[in-house]
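4.2 Preliminary Data

To establish feasibility before requesting continued support, the project team ran the inverse folding procedure on a target of 286 residues. The structure was first converted into the token representation described in Section 3, and no sequence information of any kind was made available to the design step. The complete token record follows.
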């Protein structure tokens, strides 16, 4: 809670709505990104002292990242802006379904992306076909958004479940393999109608902060599956080179030497050294 001349300070969020500025949110996010308590408190206090009524949260984000960079903590700034990094995946040339396939592999699934599967009535391109070790097979529909205020509505849920039913009926008719369940995944949020529909139909959903304790952001952070778009010391040209080489996660880069990265991508030696060094720090490797 912050007071400005005796009044609460309200900021404008990504959806264009006014909300009370929360200094504690800055503090908690800094700590979650890897800052020690003292650093997090210093950043949160400086941000709070500069926030003004009506300021946009995007401006506050840039202010926070600038302060983290200024104190020599670009790796913390990188993880602080994880949601923004996900929004940059598409424009940087990375497919969200490829990223989420990597996430699913980390939690024990075998995956194939962009598979053409014949249903009872229609042919479908399935974003991800995921299988467990017990040979349970799932259809995964990915809904990517690159605008922070956007969300996935119930029409997408209805459409996804209808496709799943067509594949289920296609299996009964002998046209396609069996699918045991369906996932709907997004890098943003689901409407409350989607949550209600998914509960009713037994459809698994995973959004940026949904469901609680098992969301996409929590999975990325707990498994350190940071996309390379979190890196702050990298330019657009280098990002395109990494995308062309199929390098999607910071940990992929952290496992390489600068020379290996340079040979694979053609990135200049000095830039390759910088990229590998930052990737190591983001992944917590000294």
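Position-by-position output of the design step:
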């Amino acid at each position: 809670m912050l007071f400005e001349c005796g009044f609460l300070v309200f900021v404008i969020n990504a959806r264009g709505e006014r909300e009370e500025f929360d200094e504690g949110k800055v503090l908690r996010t800094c700590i979650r990104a890897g800052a020690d308590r003292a650093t997090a408190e210093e950043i949160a206090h400086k941000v709070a002292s500069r926030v003004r009524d009506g300021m946009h949260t995007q401006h506050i984000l840039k202010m926070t990242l600038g302060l983290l960079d200024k104190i020599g903590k670009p790796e913390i700034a990188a993880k602080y802006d994880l949601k923004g990094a996900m929004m940059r995946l598409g424009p940087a040339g990375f497919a969200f379904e490829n990223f989420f396939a990597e996430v699913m592999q980390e939690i024990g699934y075998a995956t194939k992306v962009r598979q053409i599967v014949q249903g009872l009535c229609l042919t479908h391109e399935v974003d991800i076909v995921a299988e467990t070790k017990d040979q349970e097979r799932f259809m995964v529909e990915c809904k990517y958004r690159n605008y922070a205020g956007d969300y996935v509505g119930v029409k997408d849920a209805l459409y996804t479940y209808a496709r799943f039913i067509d594949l289920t009926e296609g299996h009964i008719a002998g046209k396609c393999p069996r699918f045991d369940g369906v996932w709907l995944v997004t890098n943003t949020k689901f409407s409350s109608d989607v949550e209600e529909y998914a509960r009713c139909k037994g459809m698994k959903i995973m959004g940026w902060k949904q469901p609680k304790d098992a969301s996409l952001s929590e999975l990325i952070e707990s498994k350190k599956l940071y996309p390379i778009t979190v890196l702050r010391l990298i330019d657009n040209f280098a990002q395109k080179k990494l995308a062309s080489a199929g390098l999607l996660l910071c940990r992929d880069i952290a496992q390489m030497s600068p020379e290996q990265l340079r040979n694979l991508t053609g990135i200049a030696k000095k830039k390759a050294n910088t990229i590998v060094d930052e990737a190591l720090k983001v992944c917590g490797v000294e």
